[in-house]
Prior knowledge:
The protein is mostly helical. The chain has one domain. 38% of the residues lie in helices and 9% in strands. The chain contains ten helices and four strands; from the N terminus they run αααββαββαααααα. The strands form two sheets. Strands 1-2 form a two-stranded antiparallel ribbon. The longest helix has 14 residues, at 142-155. 36% of the residues are buried.
Amino acid sequence: xxxxxxxxxxxxxxxRRWLRAVGERPDLPxxxxxxxxxxxxxxxxxxxxxxxxxxYEEVPAKALMAxxxxxxxxxxxxxxxxxxxxxxxxxxxWVMASRKANARRxxxxxKLWPDAPWEVVAENxxxxxxxxxxxxxxxDQRARLARKFLYVHxxxxxxxxxxxxxxxxxxxxxxxxxxxxxxxxxxxxxxxxLSGLLGYRNPxxxxxxxxxxxxxxxxxxxxxxxxx
Length: 228
């Protein structure tokens, strides 16, 4: 029982609570007309943040930019997103990665929960889970990715393909990792800067994060259930 949260609106669905916390979003699909230039938002903010690293190779943003090896990684691959939706153009769904790592991950689902004690899995490799290959990010980056994964699927449940069988099976572990693993300083700085620019937010990078992660029905959110 979460006693501090007894004042939450009775009868309000998980989806309504979530979208109220996100806030009103601008007309993001219109950004698609500017092409790759929109990605400069993430690059500029990553350079300004303290110690921002690429998500797979964990290389400082400044080094990737200097070597012209940078790219924008969509945590939920664009091939899994409805072209008519806002999701592909939402900067809260992006993270910096090297071009090589971005291409290697391709559109494979991500392993976003901790390895079991008996598992020996190399970072940035592939692991077959529940019959499907998953890309395995570094352990220290999975919570960062999980916060974006949960955000995208909760905000755009009808515009994104359902997560993999393994991701759904481990959904509680994904939410728990996002809750328990501290937000990186640079991750928070970029999120705060985006919120200031856009006027909405990823609630999992706000002071409401713990409440959201502890009390929301994440499966209902991701499935777009009206009764969750």
